[in-house]
């Protein structure tokens, strides 16, 4: 099995000269404070050198590969170099348009090229976990807007990754509009993509699984399951909350009608009714804000998949290694049998040769020679596979640790912002009802 | 103008319904300007009804309380608009509490303790404590309607529970009912005429109410006539403007309350559905927390927080169901019974007008109007006066009741949000906490 091992660029963590503890948040969506881990010096990170935004989305029509007319959305990527010694001098903004399928291509390329990296996920392809007010239509402007933000977040994640940010294809994605697709295809990454990986649920027995990866895979499965559940229920909760608020709007109307027949009570009722209308209207903004929280959760739902993919790749690697080792062992055995003439294990060849006569010594010699060559090759391959495996494990674990820190930090921030949203909602509620109470007191 | 000693009632000319300000107070001195709507004569000046009332009676001779314009208690009714009586001037206090379940062979039912404290002369003792069940209250209400047909009798909570799923003996149901029965008796207590009703006194004091009830029934069956005030069958041509206005008001009022009732029910329903989802939502954070290490505490915190919000929401819905809806329904019932009183008034007026017409047609030489027509006229004036006075009192009470009810609703919502706010604010420090480095 001839395979060219892809050499992951910079997979080996370099020793950092200085450890920078950067706690500052960047303005752009998705960037996060750096982990306290020795990795590639963060000054090298692309996100530090360049401002990246996905600033616009536009509907386009065109002809696809099968010459069929289709409508799609194109996104404008804008980049600008950050001047470290900027004195009011702004570098020019460069921009180009990309559509979702190109983002997908980029991500696939990164996944295959850096199998040991937990590659940042793309925003969902189709609207999922929607509650009734949200549209499930891909062309819906709210969906497009949230996708725009998600795509920008994706680019920033990649640009902040110590390894991925250095990739040339990624850089070209940002800077080179024409010919980018061809460039990607020329890397031949699609050949490397193991078709067996596509069968995600296929099981193959690994005799000596790495316990850590097994546990991690299990964790990623559980994480996906729990976040999906959470998102589903949250959507239902949003739906119901919407209902509660909106029904209060009916009070506004009936209080108004009632106030018309009252003398002293009239004013109080009327103005209280107005506050009920305000209350009913307030839910729209509240729930829109909550969607951002849902998007943060979704990102980690998809991140869990990326995590799982790394585990799978390791599993596959381990399996290949075991198969290669097994093959080598059997060849060695065959060689030994031929050399000594003893048949230790049953084989059809052995039987037929016994039945139909032994081979000639020359034939045997030739066979032994071939086998010895193969064994030689096999041993070298096994050695390099082992090395590859160890490298993979080392760099994968480094990135997994980095990912864990990022995840813990981001999710904590998300929970805090969710709590803040709830606090704001409660305060609004108290305000409205206090106002209404005041009106009632004047009845 | 009358000046004078307490004791002797001053008959006033029966000249049709007068505005309250025009009516001189029986105890007023020559300067009548001091009279205001909030005058409250002291208790010992109230006269026993038997002397005060002009005797209007049914054909069978049973006396009927109609509080003619002449009676001082009727005057009192019209003067006392402001129900914010100081506790000191009040001389009758009634409370309903202590519900108890009674299991008998034939049936199971609840009784309530009715406690009375009074300084009124009509009562032999200053304090009474009796036990009454719903049927007894129902009996009282019927008796009041019969004996005081010109007045607005407060409503009782619904007799039967239509929804079917509600447990008649559940704590919540019994408590809701108790509050309504307490309100019912307090409204009667506050009414200057109704509170002196004989049946009411018996209700408050009698050890064996059933015996008294039977007595009343026996009397009736002897006479074989219903105690209806009006002998029916007359149709009113047109309702006077002011009563038509009251009728219209009550119609719209009932309608709006009905709408509010439906909205409130809908809100409670939506809240309970929201609660169902929240109850599933909270625990998922807990499950997630079980998977994590560093995030375990924050996630557990969020889960607990949502749990607290669930509890708060449950309390809000319960409060609305138990305190808000019943009062709305009471007022709808009230409006219904008031419309019936309006109809009775119409009948009284119709009877009068019919008889008057009959007399006019006879073309008698006698200039004097026959006695029974005069009596009808009195009845009409009396009814109108009582009704108007009661309406004004009712409007005032209604305003206060709704003010309290709606403020209460706002309060409960504020409390709900405050509970949730506390819960979420308390976990912020937990979420921001930096874990110890491993």
TrEMBL record, chain A:
InterPro entries in the cross-refs: AH/BAR_dom_sf (IPR027267), PX_dom (IPR001683), PX_dom_sf (IPR036871), PX_SNX4 (IPR034902), SNX4 (IPR034783), SNX4_BAR (IPR037430)
Comp. bias intervals (Acidic residues): 15-29
Residues annotated as domain PX: 53-181
Short name of one Pfam family: PX
Region (Disordered): 1-37
GO molecular function terms attached to this record: phosphatidylinositol-3-phosphate binding
Protein's UniProt keywords contain Protein transport: yes
Homology family: Belongs to the sorting nexin family.
Keyword Protein transport among record annotations: yes
Name used for this protein in its record: Sorting nexin 4
Assigned GO CC terms: early endosome membrane; plasma membrane; SNARE complex
Signal sequence segment: none
Alphabetically ordered keywords of this record: Protein transport, Transport
One GO-annotated biological process of the protein: positive regulation of autophagosome assembly
From TrEMBL, chain B:
Region named Disordered: 1-75
Stretches assigned to the PX domain: 90-211
UniProt GO molecular function: phosphatidylinositol binding
Example of a GO cellular component annotation carried by this entry: phagophore assembly site
Family: Belongs to the sorting nexin family.
InterPro entries: AH/BAR_dom_sf, BAR_dom, PX_dom, PX_dom_sf, SNX30_BAR
CDD domains: BAR_SNX30, PX_SNX7_30_like
Domain of life: Eukaryota
Keywords: Protein transport, Transport
Any Gene Ontology biological process: autophagy of mitochondrion
Protein's UniProt name: Sorting nexin-30
Composition skew (Low complexity), residue ranges: 7-18
